[in-house]
Design a protein that fits this description.
Layout (H helix, E strand, L loop, with lengths): L10 H15 L8 H22 L6 H13 L7 E3 L4 H9 L1 E4 L2 E6 L2 E7 L4 H4 L7 E5 L2 E2 L5 H8 L6 E7 L6 E7 L1 E4 L5 E5 L5 E5 L7 H15 L5 E5 L8 H9 L7 E7 L6 E4 L11 E5 L6 H11 L4 E4 L7 E9 L2 E11 L30 E3 L5 E3 L8 E2 L7 H8 L2 H12 L13 H11 L9 H15 L3 H15 L3 H7 L1 H26 L4 H10 L2 H7 L6
Parallel strand pairs: 11-12, 12-15, 15-16, 16-21
Antiparallel strand pairs: 1-18, 2-9, 3-4, 4-5, 5-6, 5-7, 7-8, 10-11, 13-14, 13-18, 17-18, 19-20
Helix pairs in contact: 1-2, 7-8, 8-9, 11-16, 13-14
């Protein structure tokens, strides 16, 4: 029988554990040979995992433990390098293709119940008569009470052609019934809206939400369709706001719509110089001369910045909006076996002027692991083809900056508490049709009906000023000053206190726009939501103004104007 140590641990095992721990403290000390270091550390990791699996006091979950370790390791690099497990692969494929098997509806949870939040046009969900606001009571006899949206996603997704039986309480009639829904291949178009903008509707507008497979062709086809309707277009708008990026090759194809064959659009630089690559447009441009405006904001990233940065560097068009996100890194996926993949950063990309727009410096982390943005002193100045000055680092700075109006707290609260959503459902139940979404607005009487409906609802909130005042009060109490300033403090609080009804009137136009957009989506789906909001869009209005003014447009693209 083996002899045990004082705590009941086999002596050999304890010695092995101590040696392993010592090995971890000195894993970088013995040699500068990188291949030996890799081999040694992999052996240590394997041995550690075996010891945990054999001797740890409780059973372990190997997959979960490895995933935790891998995630911690990759956290030392950048947020774009991560492990895609077999369970995640479907979501990753959806992000790159825009396709999945399901019914074509988004769901939301309110309390313990699951409701339909959105229905895609021409989807199985629409064919089955589902609409936003419907309560999903059960699927295939399984109650959804208390289920999460993620749990529901597992039940709804599946191979095209398979069926599920849903018990649904209709939002309009309040009647429950069973619906047999046949799953289909759902494809979310990366070009959800295309149309004309401007007083004369002489400017073609296309919205691109993500760089998925074939999106460049979809953008070109959209412009083609618009030009057939109005051959004498005065300009083009490409809307990349809130577009997080996607496939690099599709960014090149999109650039090729506006830039002629053989134009250098992008250079990628790898750790191994022999892998560096220059990307050029491969086909004649769809149109290389028609005035172009590209819209970006702080959520436009990666491939969106390749397109906007290249258009800017080559003086092909005017960039309008807010400074973009600043992601100048390129990722590829590598197979790891067992349907898992590693998505890893392999290169930095550079726009035609030679600049990299990466905003955060992941190479030089602080001692606490935080990451700094590149300082102004580290940003370099480059020039566009026409000699305009542009900066590296920190995203793409627009030629014309138009800042979004921040959402008021009353609007945020009404939206987050689903009062906007619920009233849109109520409105749709009473109105069979509405005007075209580009022209639909609520009348004064209709908005007053909403204000009356929401009057007794609980949408209390704190303004930012009130939150800061609470923090000040706590600090004063901690430092024993509050008793002396209590009366002045309370007087200030009373002056700052807000009236919900007055706040609603003060921010009436903003709330009204959000409500109109939600209502429009009930009749015209995603395209209706987008079309309706364009009536109030300051960036689009500015683009129209510039494109209709050849003198201003030309001046913006002339050296010395930036």
């Amino acid at each position: 029988m083996r002899r045990l140590s004082k705590l009941g641990t086999p002596r050999g095992f304890l010695a092995g554990a101590l040696l392993s721990a010592t090995g971890f403290f000195f894993i970088n000390a013995a040699t500068s040979d990188p291949y030996f270091e890799i081999s040694k550390n992999l052996d240590i990791y394997t041995n550690l995992f075996k010891e945990l699996n054999t001797y740890y006091v409780d059973p372990i979950e190997p997959g979960k433990l490895v995933k935790t370790g891998v995630d911690a390791m990759l956290e030392e690099l950048d947020p774009y390098t991560n492990l895609i497990t077999e369970a995640d692969i479907e979501e990753y494929e959806f992000m790159t293709t825009g396709r999945y098997g399901g019914i074509g509806a988004n769901m939301q949870r309110k309390g313990d119940d699951i409701y339909v939040a959105d229905v895609y046009e021409n989807s199985p969900a629409q064919m089955a008569g589902l609409h936003p606001g419907d309560l999903i009571e059960s699927i295939d006899g399984q109650s959804l009470k208390g289920k999460s949206v993620d749990d529901l996603g597992i039940l709804l997704k599946g191979s095209p052609g398979t069926q599920l039986r849903m018990k649904v309480k209709d939002a309009y009639t309040q009647q429950s019934s069973e619906r047999l829904v046949t799953r289909g291949e759902i494809e979310i178009s990366s070009v959800p809206y295309a149309g004309f903008v401007g007083p004369q509707e002489n400017i073609a507008y296309v919205r691109l939400t993500q760089f998925t497979q074939h999106c460049g062709t979809l953008v070109k086809d959209a412009y083609d369709s618009l030009k057939k309707v109005k051959p004498e277009l005065k300009g083009l708008v490409l809307d990349l706001r809130n577009n997080p990026g996607g496939l690099l090759d599709e960014a090149i194809v999109t650039c090729n719509i506006f830039l002629d064959k053989g134009t250098s659009v992008l250079t990628t630089r790898y750790r191994i110089p022999d892998m560096d690559k220059e990307y050029k447009t491969a086909l004649p441009a769809w149109n290389k001369d028609l005035p172009l405006a590209v819209l970006v904001n702080k959520s436009s990233a990666s491939a969106s910045e390749i397109v906007s940065g290249s258009i800017q560097d080559l003086d092909r068009g005017v960039i309008i909006g807010e400074r973009s996100f600043g992601k100048g890194l390129v990722q590829v996926t590598r197979p790891l076996g067992f349907k898992s993949q590693l998505k890893l950063t392999v290169a930095r990309y550079y726009t035609p002027s030679g600049r990299c727009i990466q905003a955060l410096d992941y190479t030089h982390r602080n001692s606490d692991g935080t990451v700094n943005a590149f300082s102004d002193s580290m940003k370099k100045t480059f020039t566009t083809a026409a000699g305009r000055k542009v900066k590296s680092g920190g995203g793409v700075t627009p030629d014309i900056i138009v800042k979004d109006e921040p959402m008021s707290m009353v609007a945020v609260t009404l939206y987050s508490k689903n009062y906007i959503f619920d009233y849109a459902t109520l409105y749709a139940s009473k109105h069979k049709t509405i005007a075209d979404p580009t022209k639909f607005t609520l009348t004064e009487a209709e908005f007053n009906d909403f204000a009356k409906w929401v009057e007794n609802k609980d949408f209390s909130y704190k303004t930012e000023t009130e939150s800061q005042l609470d923090s000040l009060k706590k600090k004063a109490e901690d430092e024993k000053y509050y008793a002396n300033i209590k009366s002045e403090f309370e007087a200030l609080r009373n002056k700052l206190s807000h009236d919900k009804k007055q706040d609603l009137l003060k921010h009436k136009e903003q709330v009204k726009q959000i409500l109109e957009s939600e209502i429009a989506s009930r009749y015209y789906y995603t395209r209706g939501r987008m079309a309706q909001t364009m009536q109030y869009d300051k960036e689009i209005a500015k683009a129209v103004s510039v494109l209709n003014s050849p003198t201003e447009y030309k001046a913006l693209l002339t050296a010395g104007k930036k």
